[in-house]
């Protein structure tokens, strides 16, 4: 555009450091070039359709429309000790897990790096401006657990992670240790991620410790089975020295039996007990038309007890956003 090179640093400082997306606030730039620079380098990538809130305004789900009309959702969650953004990486999802609302709609398209980053930036701006219950704050954690399979959009997701972790003013300056990337088990991409040199947390959506059931719950298991995905997770932990999270949605009378807790412990302990893994149990969240529901509390407690008795670290996720269809497995991005 014929501008001086330092203008790029000024734009980056406004976007990432100052969280200023309105050209009127770019007072260090000449008035006659602000709009042209904004149009060229900062086009509107996501247009908000609506916000839904719960938890006294501490949880906010935003429905976004992208430039081509595709819809995605992101969720901001404020906890007493942290603030987490759950972001989408694809419009829809092609993994077709039957208990997940996103997977029922199929895949529309991959999101760009910039579209992924903008979800986090919007949350950061809302917090800076005090628009979230609890006052001003800062996004400290980003989880790629929204719509889509992150590792199926590998290049854009890794690009977003690098942009978010680049120090300001060239990036948002987040710690990679505060970023979690979830996958249903795309083994080659899990192996590739281990070589990137980014100390993020890998979360493997396992949901069953045996192939017979996992083939039904996570169809990609017919391509890479339980042993293969656990091996890839173990290799990730070994290479990065970062503990892997095993995500396990508890579904009543489907995968919550004591025998499956025993088998899960056996499968994980087979790779050693050097602290490489942590199990994150997730009570199933209802989705329209689903024939499944959450486990009984007694079954959940017994599942936890069995894992703990065998030395497997385990927690039960504090589910947020269920009332606004913003919890795990509920994001569907419907306009109505």
How would you describe this protein?
It is a single chain. With 336 residues, the protein is α/β, with parallel strands linked by helices. The chain contains 10 helices and 12 strands. The chain has a 10-stranded mixed β-sheet, with helices on one face. A two-stranded antiparallel ribbon has the order 5-6. A hairpin with a 4-residue loop joins strand 2 and strand 3. Helix 4 runs parallel beside helix 5, helix 6 packs parallel to helix 8 and helix 9 runs parallel beside helix 10.
Task: Record the SSE blueprint.
Elements: H1 6-17, H2 31-41, E1 46-54, E2 59-66, E3 71-78, E4 83-86, E5 90-92, H3 101-104, E6 107-110, H4 113-128, E7 141-144, H5 154-165, E8 179-183, H6 187-193, E9 201-205, H7 211-217, H8 226-240, E10 244-250, H9 258-269, E11 277-283, H10 297-309, E12 314-316
Parallel strand pairs: 4-7, 7-8, 8-9, 9-10, 10-11, 11-12
Antiparallel strand pairs: 1-2, 2-3, 3-4, 5-6
Separation of termini?
Answer: 42 Å
Low-confidence spans:
none
Run of helices and strands: HHEEEEEHEHEHEHEHHEHEHE
- Average pLDDT, rounded to a whole number, is 93
Cα gyration radius (Å): 21 Å
Structural class, from secondary structure content? alpha/beta
The neighbouring-strand order within the major sheet is 1-2-3-4-7-8-9-10-11-12
- The count of DSSP E runs of length 2 or more, i.e. the number of strands, is 12
Helix content: 25-40%
Q: Globular, elongated, flat, extended or rod-shaped: what is the shape?
A: globular
Estimate what percentage of residues fall within beta strands: 15-25%
| Assembly status | single chain
Counting H and I runs of at least 4 residues, what is the number of helices? 10
Largest sheet data: 10 strands, mixed
């Amino acid at each position: 555009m014929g501008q001086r090179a330092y203008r790029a640093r000024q734009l980056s400082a406004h976007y990432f450091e100052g969280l200023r997306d309105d050209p009127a606030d770019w007072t260090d730039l000449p008035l006659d070039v602000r709009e042209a620079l904004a149009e060229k380098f900062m086009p509107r990538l996501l247009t908000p359709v609506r916000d839904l809130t719960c938890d006294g305004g501490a949880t906010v789900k935003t429905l976004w429309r992208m430039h081509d009309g595709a819809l995605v959702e992101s969720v901001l969650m404020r906890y007493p000790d942290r603030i987490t953004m759950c972001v989408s990486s694809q419009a829809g999802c092609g993994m077709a897990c039957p208990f997940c609302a996103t997977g029922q709609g199929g895949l529309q398209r991959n999101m760009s790096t910039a579209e992924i980053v903008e979800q986090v930036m919007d949350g950061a701006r809302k917090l800076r401006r005090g628009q979230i219950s609890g006052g001003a704050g800062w996004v400290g954690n980003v989880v790629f657990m929204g719509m889509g399979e992150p590792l199926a959009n590998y290049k854009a997701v890794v690009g977003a992670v690098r942009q978010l972790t680049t120090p300001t003013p060239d990036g948002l300056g987040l710690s990679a240790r505060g970023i979690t990337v979830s996958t249903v088990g795309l083994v080659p991409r899990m192996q590739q991620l281990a070589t990137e040199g980014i100390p993020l947390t890998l979360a493997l959506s396992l949901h069953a410790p045996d192939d017979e059931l996992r083939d039904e719950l996570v169809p990609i298991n017919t391509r890479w089975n339980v042993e293969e995905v656990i091996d890839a997770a173990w290799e990730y932990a070994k290479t990065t020295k970062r503990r892997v999270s095993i995500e396990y949605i508890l579904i009543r009378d489907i995968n919550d039996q004591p025998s499956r807790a025993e088998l899960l412990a056996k499968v994980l302990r087979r790779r050693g007990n050097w602290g490489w893994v942590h199990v994150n149990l997730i009570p199933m969240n209802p989705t329209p038309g689903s024939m499944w529901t959450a486990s009984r509390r007694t079954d959940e407690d017994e599942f936890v007890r069995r894992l703990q008795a065998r030395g497997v670290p385990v927690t039960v996720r504090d589910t947020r956003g269920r009332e606004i269809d913003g919890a795990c497995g509920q994001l569907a991005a419907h306009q109505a």
